[in-house]
């Protein structure tokens, strides 16, 4: 089924072109430059050459207004269905970001299910309001009702219609090329998004592994920290014990230091005493030597005296022995005389006894 050039255009694009042709000016403000800018300049020149401000009357194009209303209604529904990205706390998906980027960069768009920015819809809504006001102002013959082509209701020659159709075809081709480029960019961006999702998945997996490793590390660190804390407490206890021992040792050291000072004083006193005793010993030795010499002299003198006494005693002893012998001899002679006397006494006694006995018998 063959379509004419005006049927291939979207209702919004056709309304823009028709409004620019009716007003005799360029396209509405807010559209991007590039190929669209060149088409605007060509349409301005053509509209000026055609002289649309003549007294030509056209029939009312009611179907176009209906299409515009339906398209505006669909666009409003689509705009209402667009998620409010600003209210999502910065958590837009990759597809939404890509769709918003591509829709902002498109100079023309069709009435489709692709979400578009609210700024574009604001411009188009204002344009449609101006178009409806102009239609009410111009009357029922402002737009054609023909079902073949809207150009048939305008006072145009065949060459001018051909030029307009050529411009429309060029614009359609340009838009198709641009749409293909945007599709290609969309596919590239989609591939990049998929790759980024893979990278993000790997990154999330790596982050999860890192978090798990970090948790294990934290657990190990906690255990090590507890162990180190216990060791620190033990070390502090040992340190306190060592400090107490050190304080006791220092106190003992101070005590021993005092005792040592006392010992040093005693040592000095003892050294003095020892020196005094040494001096006294030397003096006593000197006295001893003197006494020894004097004693030796005395001994020698005593020995001489003893020798003399012994000699004298020996002489006296010899004399005494001689006198003793003499006396012994006297004693012996006296004992003999005594025995002789005793014998005589016994004999006389016997004689007396005999006489007494005889006398008694005689009496």
Q: Total number of β-strand segments?
A: 0
Rounded mean pLDDT score: 71
Provide a count of the helices.
7
Strand content: under 5%
Structural class from helices and strands?
mainly alpha
What percent of the residues sit in helical stretches (DSSP H or I)?
over 70%
CA-atom Rg in angstroms: 81 Å
Low-confidence stretches: 25-43, 45-92, 101-125, 139-148
For the terminal residues, how far apart are their CA atoms? 239 Å
Shape: rod-shaped
Q: Helix and strand string, N-terminal first?
A: HHHHHHH
**How would you characterize the largest beta sheet?**
none
Write a structural description.
With 363 residues, the chain is mainly alpha-helical. It has a domain at 5-156. Helix content is 80%, strand content 0%. It has seven helices and no strands. It has helices spanning 5-8, 11-23, 35-50, 62-81, 94-105, 118-138, 158-362. Helix 4 (62-81) packs antiparallel against helix 6 (118-138). It starts with a helix and ends with a helix.
Topology:
Elements: H1 5-8, H2 11-23, H3 35-50, H4 62-81, H5 94-105, H6 118-138, H7 158-362
Short description:
It is built from 7 helices and no strands. It is mainly α.
Features:
single chain, 363 residues, mainly alpha, 7 helices, 0% strand, Transforming acidic coiled-coil containing protein 1, phosphoprotein, TACC_C
């Amino acid at each position: 089924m063959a379509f004419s050039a005006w049927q291939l255009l979207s209702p919004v694009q056709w309304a823009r072109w028709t409004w620019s042709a009716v007003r005799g000016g360029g396209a509405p403000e807010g559209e991007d430059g590039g190929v669209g800018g060149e088409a605007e300049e060509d349409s301005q020149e053509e509209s000026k050459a055609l002289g649309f401000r003549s007294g030509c009357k056209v029939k009312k194009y009611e179907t176009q207004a209906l299409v515009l209303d339906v398209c505006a209604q669909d666009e409003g529904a689509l705009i209402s269905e667009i998620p409010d990205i600003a209210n999502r706390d910065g958590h837009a998906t990759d597809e939404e970001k890509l769709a918003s980027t591509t829709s902002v960069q498109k100079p023309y768009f069709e009435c489709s299910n692709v979400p578009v920015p609210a700024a574009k819809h604001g411009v188009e809504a204002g344009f449609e309001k101006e178009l409806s006001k102009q239609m009410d102002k111009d009357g029922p013959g402002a737009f054609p009702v023909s079902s073949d082509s809207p150009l048939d209701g305008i006072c145009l020659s065949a060459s001018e219609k051909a030029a307009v159709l050529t411009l429309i075809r060029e614009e359609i081709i340009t838009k198709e090329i641009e749409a293909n480029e945007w599709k290609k960019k969309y596919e590239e961006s989609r591939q990049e998004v998929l790759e980024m999702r893979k990278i993000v998945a790997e990154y999330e997996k790596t982050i999860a592994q890192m978090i798990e490793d970090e948790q294990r590390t934290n657990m190990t660190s906690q255990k090590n920290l507890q162990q180190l804390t216990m060791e620190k407490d033990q070390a502090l206890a040992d340190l306190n014990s060592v400090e107490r021992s050190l304080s006791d040792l220092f106190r003992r050291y101070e005590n021993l230091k005092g005792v040592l000072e006392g010992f040093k004083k005693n040592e000095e006193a003892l050294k003095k005493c020892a020196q005094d005793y040494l001096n006294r010993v030397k003096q006593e030795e000197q006295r001893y030597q003197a006494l020894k010499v004097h004693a030796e002299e005395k001994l020698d003198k005593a020995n001489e005296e003893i020798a003399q006494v012994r000699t004298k005693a020996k002489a006296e002893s010899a004399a005494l022995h001689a006198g003793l012998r003499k006396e012994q001899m006297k004693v012996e002679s006296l004992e003999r005389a005594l025995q002789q006397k005793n014998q005589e006494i016994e004999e006389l006694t016997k004689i007396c006894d005999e006489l007494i006995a005889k006398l008694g018998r005689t009496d």
